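Tip: read the tokens left to right.
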């Protein structure tokens, strides 16, 4: 299952999120602003419609534009890629940049030199986990009231990338580099992992464990035989929800 994020383009040409959703493992929240590099056409893309409509998130797959996260084809007559999404910007208190190790760059703004000096000891740049970044953002969100300073935070894969992002990040905002994970999708929906028994769990298909660990065979007296599903011409096969076995009774 997936929820498709809804986008809108503002009067100044910025792309913002108006309804939360997930695309390529990236969780987007209402109010997020997408940082788009129009000089790049790879990775996670912003697709603009021809004529009326809102932009959407997509990518290229085998040379064709597809929507994310659904994987539905996007006709080039209707959609065109305006650029690659490089980062997301949001309010500090919303945090939540995703798992992994990040280099975090911090900028402190203050008119009071004493407050600025004290804040530099509290709000520092460096390598952090996602949980550490969230904690930093929560403290930075209340920094104007607590410390008398304004904080801008940027997070990326390394120091140079984080500092580049920080140059364009406003105070009271967090900007972080995206880390998309493109998952293959079938044309028939999404496979959900279930709680049912699987082959290799200690009991062969068609058998169950009775009292004291004795095996109980359910089915005909001749037993139950596992039947392999074979797809002809490479076609996709939907596996049975409750196992892939069949009796060999005629």
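Filled-in amino acids:
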């Amino acid at each position: 299952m997936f929820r498709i994020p809804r986008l809108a383009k503002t009067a100044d040409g910025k792309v913002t999120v108006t309804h939360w959703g997930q695309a390529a493992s990236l969780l987007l929240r209402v109010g997020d602003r997408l940082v788009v590099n129009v000089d790049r056409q790879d990775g996670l893309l912003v697709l603009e419609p021809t004529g009326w409509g809102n932009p959407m998130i997509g990518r290229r797959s085998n040379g064709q534009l597809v929507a994310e996260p659904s994987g539905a084809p996007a006709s080039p007559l209707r959609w065109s890629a305006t650029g690659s999404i490089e980062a997301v910007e949001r309010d500090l208190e919303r945090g939540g940049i995703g798992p992994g190790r990040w280099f975090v760059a911090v900028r402190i703004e203050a008119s009071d030199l004493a407050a600025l000096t004290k804040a530099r000891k509290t709000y520092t740049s460096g390598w952090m986990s996602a949980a550490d970044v969230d904690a930093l953002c929560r403290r930075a969100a209340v920094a104007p009231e607590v410390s008398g300073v304004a904080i801008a935070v940027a997070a990326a894969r390394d120091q140079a990338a984080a500092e580049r992002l920080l140059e364009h990040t406003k105070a009271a905002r967090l900007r972080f580099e995206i880390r998309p994970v493109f998952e293959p999708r079938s044309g028939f929906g999404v496979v959900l992992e279930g709680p049912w028994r699987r082959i290799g769990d200690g009991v062969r298909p068609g058998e169950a464990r009775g009292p004291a660990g004795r095996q109980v065979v359910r089915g005909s007296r001749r037993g139950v035989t596992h039947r392999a599903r074979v797809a002809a011409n490479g076609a996709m096969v939907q596996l049975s929800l409750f196992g892939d076995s069949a009796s060999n009774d005629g």
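The chain has a mean pLDDT of 80. The chain has four helices and 17 strands.
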